[in-house]
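the four lines:
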Amino acid sequence: MLQPLVKSLIAAELRVLEEHGISMWSYVVLSALDDSPIRTQAALAEAIGADKTRIISTLDRLQEAGLISREPDPEDRRARLLAITQDGRSARRAAQADIRANEERVLAALSAADRQAFLRAAQALSAMPHEEIVG
Amino acid sequence: MLQPLVKSLIAAELRVLEEHGISMWSYVVLSALDDSPIRTQAALAEAIGADKTRIISTLDRLQEAGLISREPDPEDRRARLLAITQDGRSARRAAQADIRANEERVLAALSAADRQAFLRAAQALSAMPHEEIVG
DNA sequence: TATTGTTATACTCTATAACTATA
DNA sequence: TATAGTTATAGAGTATAACAATA
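prediction for all of em together
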């Protein structure tokens, strides 16, 4: 039952992101880096549940667009220090605001009570570890 | 927030289905045919939101396993009459029972009130047309 | 020798196009 | 000629393996 709903929400999110000119992976990366900088690409990949080879082109584009910085760590030049730039932060927050606005619009279909309970329940279920859900 | 949850739920469902020896697409097809027989493969494909070329191998396997019947329509031998068999119905219902049992287990993490509200809200949101969610 | 990042390759899933058979 | 089904082909997305740079 939730699957088509999530599919629609993702489609909505993609549409918003397209208006902002960023891809889903770019948005995921920007969101991760908006919380805190990360010292290696492998750590970023793991944090967002992606393969380390899969994010390289995304990082290329983000760097070229000036939305992230990506420099060799002076202390270990194999690693790349990753951080979001001011432009990146602005872009991410603007996109996030639009995404949230749409979600609010959708949630407006619910009564205030159901809506609160839905969000509370979704949060509780999302907090369950993957293994516990899979069993 | 919902996306990882759904991902975990799908993983759980896949694990259950694997124990029953059927694939996700097989389960989707069996579920569609358990409701009512379908006169053409194209109609089935549309009903489950799949491409008509994509379900052929699935139908091959289901037929070989004796879980569905698939015969040329005597009145128009281009079409294939599709129906679930008794074995297919048993397999589908057994899998469904296990899937539901796991979902119950997961939902047990919620209070009775939140759980009811969550299901009610999920149902309401799922009933929204795709276009209204995308905007 | 081990690790980080990158590139090259292969694999899976899906969609598009061409083909066969029926009408 | 049009339609149902099938097969062949191509494309996107992803993961695996090999490689270069640094430690």
